[in-house]
Structure formats: C-alpha cells, structure tokens
Design goal:
The structure holds 2 protein chains of 2 kinds. By secondary structure, chain A is an all-alpha fold. Chain A is built from 14 helices and 2 strands. Chain A has a single domain (about 40-310), classed as Orthogonal Bundle (ABC transporter involved in vitamin B12 uptake, BtuC). Chain B starts with a strand and ends in an 8-residue tail after the last helix. Chain B folds into 2 domains: about 1-235, P-loop containing nucleotide triphosphate hydrolases (Rossmann fold); about 255-340 and about 410-490, P-loop containing nucleotide triphosphate hydrolases (Rossmann fold, 3-Layer(aba) Sandwich), CATH 3.40.50. Classes of the chains: A mainly alpha, B alpha/beta.
Chain lengths: ~325, ~500
C-alpha cells in the first residue's frame, strides 16, 4: 500500500522533475536566467497564464473544455479599461470586471448543461461571440489613457513584501483553489462529475450545478488575469488573450490532468504553466528564433503527454 | 449442417460454458433458450468467431473448423444479426446492403452505384419487400430494417443466420412479415438459430429447441413433442444450491406505495405496496422494465403518470436528491457505469452519497469521513488493503459491497437493490444476503430486483412479476415456485393461483 502510494506520488511529481531539469539546462546555457530580475520576469508572465490554467483545470476535471477564456479576458479587460478611463473608482471597476467574467463563464455552463451542447462546440461559439463583442465594444482600437489610479497600477506592476503583486495573486489563488479542490465537498463533486457523471447523479449530486460553477469559476479567473494584464500594459487590446486557451490547456495537460476528466490536480497545472514560462523565457535568453520556439514548445508538450501515456499504460 | 460439441469457455476463471452441445440442421429453425446468463450469447459468439472456445469442436458440414475471427465464420456462411441493428441510418438501403463489400471498377475504389442499386432491388423483391433501394434506411420502420438485416445476410451468401431477440422491437404485423420471410428462406435450405424469451414465437416458428442452464446444455426437444411446462422446468430446474440465511420478519405498515406509475414507451400502470421490514422481490426477464421503474421511483427518470406515496404522504420526487431526502437509497444494477467512480478510492466512493454528513459548511471533515468508511468496511467485511485502495482494483463482490456501503451511509428507510448479486461469487453473495436480512430486521423496506429466481424465492417475502412493461402477477411466499414466476414473466397462458 505505502509502496503503491509512493509510486503514485512519484508519477504525480514527474512534471516537477521535468521543470527542475529544464531550469538546470537553461541556467547552464545562460546563467543570467537565475538573476532575481529574470526570475521575477518569468513569474510575472506565468502568473497570467497560470491563473487562466487554474480555471481550465476545474473545467477539464469535469471532463469539459473551455475555449472562450482568451476572449473573456479580452472583453473584461476592455470593459475595465473603459471604466477606468471614464474615471470610475478602480475597486468598483475591478468588481464589475470580475462579475462580468463570472457571468460570461456561467453562460458557457448553462449552454452546456441546459442546452446539452458539447463543451468544445459551446465554448468555440462563445469564444467567437465574446471576441466579437470585444471588437464591437472597443471599435477595434486599444483603450489607453487609463488615468492615474495608483491602486490599479499596483495590481499589475507593484510589489508586495518584495514580490511582484501578480505573483502574489497567483500564489494566493493557487492556495485557495487547491483547498477548494482537495478539502471541500464542491471539490469532491468536481472530481466525481468527471470520473463518472452518471454515478455522481445517482449519488444525489446536482451535476448541472457543479458544471455551471466550474465554468463560472473559469470565467472569473480569466477576468482576474485580464485585470493583471490591463494593469501591466496600462491599456486594453481588443486582440488580447488570443490563443491563451491553448496555453492554458497545455499547462493543464503538462501537469498530468487527464482530458477525460476525474483525474489530476491543480499543483500539476502550476508546474505545467511554469514549464511553458521557463521554456519561453529560456529560449529567448539562449537566442532561439521565435519561429523555432513554437516548434520546440509543441514537441515538449508532445513528449510530456507521451511519457504520461506510457506511465498509465 | 453445424455441430458444436463439448464447447467450454471461461472468463477470468469463471466458467461460462461447460461441455455444451448444439446442432443446427440444414433448413431448420432452431430455438436457443435459457435464463439470463445461461450462456446463450457466449455460445453464439463462439459460433460466429467473436470469441474463441477453450475446448470442444465445431464442425460445418462434417468438416472441423477453427474460427479466429468473425471473418472466418462469415466465409462459411454463418452470420449473426444482433439485437441492436447494425444499420447506418443515414445511408440508403442499397448502401447498407453492400456495406464493406461494395462493387467497384476493379481496384480503383470507384463505386458501381447503379449496379448495386439494381442488385439490391432484385434482392428486396425476392424477399417480397416493396422498398426502393435509394430510401434512407433510418426512415424505415424497425421491422423493415430487421428484414434488411436478413437481406444483407443473404447478400453475403449466408447459410446459417443467428437472430438474437429479433422481435423485441417489432409490432405484431411486422413479426408476421418477418416470420413469412424466415419460413421462405428455410424452404430454400437456409438455417436459423432463433434466440428469444417469447415462448409463443418459439412454438410458432421453430422446429427444435436447445435449452441451456448455467452454462450447460440441459437438452434438445422437437417442438411438436414438448410443451411450455417442460421447457420452463428445464430452464429453471436447478437445485437450490445457495443457502439463504433465515430472517425474522416483523413486517410493519406500508412504507412505499406506487400507483399507476407510467413512463411512456417503457412501462405502464405499475402499482404496488412495500412494507417496513419487507423484502419485495421484482422478477421478470431482461427488458421487462424493472430497472426503469426503480429509476423512476428514485427520480432519475420522469414519470408521465402516476403517484408515489411514502408513509401515506404523497412524495414529489423530481430528482435523486429529492429521493434521498425522502429516505430512499438505490443500489444500481451496473456498478461500473452507475454505482462507482472507478478511479476513486473506496473511501471517496462511500462518502460520495454522504458528502453532507462528512463535512461542515462545505469543508470536508476527515474524522467523520474516515470513521464512517472504517465502520462500513468492517461491517460489510470489505476485503481491502485500506480505505485508499482504488475501487477499480477490487473484485466484483467487494465493489458491490462498496456500493451498498455508500447507500447504507445515507441510512435509508427504503432501499432499492437492482441485481444486488450479479457477477458476485457465492461467498460474497451469502454475505450480501445477510446484509439484506439485517436491514429488513431493522425495519428497512427493501425492493429487490433480481433475475435469479432462486435468489428471489430464497430472499423475498413477496414477489411481483413484470412482463414487457406491465405488472403481470404477484406471488406470496406460499405459492412461490420458479415455474409460477416464470409463467408470469414469459406470459404463458396457464392460469396459476397466487
């Protein structure tokens, strides 16, 4: 039994070993990777994709997928930016943006459960709709001149106890979400829906409600990422967040969560997001051309998934 | 002519067929009958090359043959028409008839559509069917599709056709057409194996009948020389091998009353009462609608009509959550697809229906969960290395105990058990019977669906029998024999006092 458990732990920590190996290789090839400034830089970039990927983990654990996160990010970012530029209070703005994110996610959940539409199709459609709404809302132009809101700027650019605020946000978010998944009845229900939806339903679980909730959480987290991005750039781009859904899915899969649902953990997603971040940054430092970077990234994802397959086979 | 002799087959050490004999003459319609699990479909899967036999011999026209795949059997003209039709509804009739053996111009892969449609038309008219080969198959009735399956078999030169419950979804008129077609083909020397639970059809169309019981052949009879009673006796006449533990029944007031419960297309006007401390057996053949009734009581299906009363109060059950609040537990038939989350541990599976009890304000309380799980692992004698062991790695009997434990955790006042001992070894069976008795003695009202007649007779205080979506009989303890129950279940004519 303990042997069985330790084996399971080793396989779960596989991605972590991969990350450490990657860090060693990159720092040998370019020692400046390990400078504090660069590490903070990597973490700040990772924070946005990791927060989106945390939400994606919930969705994928139920056996679903959410392609609309990038568009949700763009739309809520644009709304936040326009509210700020019209002089609204930054905390009110953030509250509104997060609420809209939550609602956009819940809409996905309702379409999927009540409309009985496959998650891939439903969120493919809303991805297009939300992106289109962003273009309509911004008239296709970036929104800048956000005004001088110190508290909002702090959100993306500030430091808390010496750490970048986005990184602190990511870590706090991780702890809260980890707790929800592992220690609450809701977390247990998320795993049960993905593991065997029929058995979950027959055990008295309102599976529709669980699914709507996970998509709502994902929308909320996408809008949180939007606030960080908007604050960092001091503007909102109508094309922001394009293909972020793919990075998020890649992070979840790299972390060992099964696309079939029911199996995985959010710590793996954090590691997966870090792997992608370190890879991007490391290849820049080493001087790999941006064209080749994509090739390498894709191959790394493929190798990771193939290794995972072998383990389970 | 096909001769199968000494056929043996085991799955993971479970013997499914033991020294079974079967013979199919040319131009014969031969019925294969037996209770659920008697080995009929395994036997036919061996004949059609889907399974390989462990021992025994198959001879076709006197020549011993070895089937490694369905293709081998097909080459000798052995074709199976499965209960679920293998038609692609969006293709035309002609396309379905030639599926996988399309006529082409040499090896180019270019289809000879017109030729295929012409041949299809000829074949259809030979079978007396007035169907345009360009019709979309899904637009035809199930009966016509059934006959097109036969046409497809004929098109590939079938000499031996196995039909598994061919009339299950047909109307009386469609059955008539089917029988006419079958008889005409028989006259041309084609043989049929006819698997059915419907006694009257077997007497109407078959020449001989082979009966299987518990994986062994019980005997062969010529249809004119046998009768309903003899066949039923042959099907069920096993010794009561299992011992059923004694129970001290203190049957109390009515706990659950079901009135005129109906789900359109599945079952009609089902009414019965279940009392505290009573074990009410529900017997019937597969597909009689028993599981669907249970699912409807549990709120997993929506009733079109009917009422459910609990303790004399009308219960408005709309979902499993409502049912659980009303004190109902439901040990489902298929533990792998409905009962368990296989990747979950034993602990997580047991607490799945008890998350409220194992938590406070949404946060799991490990102590509550662990003590509850430990109690049931101990009470139900679940053999495991520990509560963290995954449900997937348990034996069938222990998996079933985990599902039962999950529901005992909810402390139900009404417990529905759907095939509680299916695929469970004899030792675990007895333990499950023991648990059922303890629950009944504690006053729990138990509805036990079972296809194993000895189990129903051994365990139930009273039995209700369903046939094709209707309650056809109720039998009390004194009159409970396998023959009586089987007659209600198959719709035999004989009137029995109950």
């Amino acid at each position: 039994m303990s042997n069985h458990k330790s084996k399971e732990l080793v396989s779960k920590l596989g991605p972590l070993f991969g990350l450490i190996l990657l860090i060693i290789v990159v720092s040998i090839l370019n020692p400046s990777f390990l400078s504090i400034a660069n590490i903070f830089n990597v973490l700040r970039q990772v924070s946005i994709s990791a927060i989106i990927a945390f939400g994606m983990t919930f969705v994928i654990l139920t056996g679903g997928i959410d392609l609309s996160v990038g568009s949700t990010l763009a739309l809520t970012g644009a709304i936040a930016a326009s509210l700020l530029s019209s002089g609204k209070d930054p905390f009110l703005t953030m509250g509104i943006a997060l609420t809209i994110g939550l609602i956009l996610g819940a809409i996905n959940g309702v379409i999927i459960t009540k409309g009985k539409v496959a998650p891939f199709i439903a969120t493919l459609a809303t991805m297009t709709v939300y992106r289109g709404l962003t273009l309509v809302y911004t008239d296709g132009r970036p929104i800048s001149n956000l005004g001088d809101h110190y508290s909002f700027q702090l959100f993306g650019k500030g430091y808390f106890l010496g750490f970048p605020v986005p990184v602190v946000t990511m870590v706090v978010g991780f702890i809260v979400l980890y707790f929800i998944l592992q220690k609450t009845t809701f977390g247990r229900r998320v795993y049960a829906v993905g593991g065997n939806e029929e058995a979950a339903k027959l055990s008295g679980i309102n599976t529709d409600r669980v699914k709507i909730a996970v998509y709502a959480i994902t929308g909320l987290l996408a809008s949180l990422a939007a606030l960080i991005l908007t604050s960092r750039l001091n503007s909102a781009q109508p094309t922001a967040g394009e293909s972020y859904e793919l990075d998020a899915i890649a992070a979840v899969v790299l972390g060992g969560t099964s696309l079939n649902g029911g199996k995985g953990w959010i710590f793996g997603t954090l590691i997966g997001a870090l792997i992608i971040g370190v890879l991007n940054n490391g290849m820049n430092l080493i001087g790999v051309s941006s064209f080749w970077q994509q090739v390498v990234k894709g191959i790394v994802i493929l190798i990771a998934v193939l290794m995972d397959r072998k383990k389970t086979a | 002519m096909i001769q199968m002799s000494g056929i043996c087959k085991a799955f993971n050490g479970n013997i499914v067929l033991e020294n079974v004999q079967f013979e199919l003459a040319n131009g014969e319609i031969h019925a294969l009958m037996g209770e659920n699990g008697a080995g009929k479909s395994t036997m036919m899967k061996i004949l059609s090359g889907i399974y390989t036999k462990d021992a025994g011999e198959i001879k076709v026209d006197g020549q011993p043959v070895q089937f490694k795949s369905p293709k081998d059997a097909e080459k000798l003209g052995i074709i199976v028409i499965h209960q679920e039709l293998n038609m692609l509804p969006d293709l035309t009739v002609a396309q379905n008839l030639f599926l996988g053996k399309e006529l082409t111009y040499g090896k180019t892969g270019i289809l000879k559509n017109r030729e295929m449609e012409k041949e299809a038309a000829q074949l259809l008219s030979k079978l007396g069917l007035d169907i345009n080969p360009r019709t979309r198959t899904g637009d035809l009735s199930v009966g016509k599709q059934q006959i097109i399956e036969i046409a497809k078999a004929i098109a590939s030169d079938a000499k031996y056709i196995v039909m598994d419950e061919p009339t299950a979804a047909l109307t009386d008129r469609e059955i008539e057409t089917l029988f006419k077609t079958v008889n005409e083909l028989k006259a041309k020397g084609i043989s049929f194996v006819y698997i059915s639970h419907r006694m009257e059809e077997i007497f109407a169309i078959c020449d001989r009948i082979t009966i299987l019981r518990d994986g062994q052949s019980v005997g062969v009879r010529k249809i004119p020389e046998t009768n309903f009673d003899e066949i039923v006796a042959m099907m069920v006449g096993r010794e009561l091998g299992e011992r059923f533990p004694e129970r001290n029944c203190k049957i109390g007031d009515t706990k659950l009353e079901v009135r005129n419960l109906t789900v359109n297309g599945l079952f009609q006007d089902v009414s019965f009462e279940l009392k505290k401390g009573e074990v009410l057996g529900v017997a019937g053949l597969m597909g009689a609608g028993r599981t669907e009734v249970a699912q409807t009581i549990f709120g997993y299906r929506k009733a079109n009509k009917g009422e459910i009363f609990i303790d004399g109060q009308k219960a408005g059950i709309k979902s499993p959550i409502d049912a659980m609040k009303s004190g109902i537990g439901f040990v489902t038939e298929d533990r792998k697809t409905q009962g368990l989350v296989l990747d979950f541990s034993i602990k997580d599976n047991i607490s799945l229906a008890n998350l409220e009890k194992c938590s406070s304000s949404g946060i799991m309380k490990k102590e509550n969960e662990n003590s509850m799980v430990a109690k049931y692992i101990n009470d139900l004698k679940i053999r495991t290395s520990g509560p963290e062991q995954s449900a997937k790695s348990l034996s069938g009997g222990n998996q079933q105990k985990v599902v039962i434990a999950k529901w005992l955790g909810t402390e139900p006042e009404i417990l529905i058990l759907d095939e509680p001992t299916r695929g469970v070894d004899i030792g675990a069976k007895k333990e499950i019977y023991h648990i059922i008795n303890q629950l009944a003695e504690a006053g729990v009202a138990i509805l036990m669906i079972s296809s194993e007649l000895p189990e129903v007779i051994g365990m139930a205080d009273r039995v209700i029998v369903m046939q094709e979506g209707r309650l056809t009989g109720e039998v009390n303890k004194e009159n409970m024999t396998q023959e009586v129950i089987m007659q209600y279940a198959t719709g035999g004519e004989k009137v029995v006092q109950s």
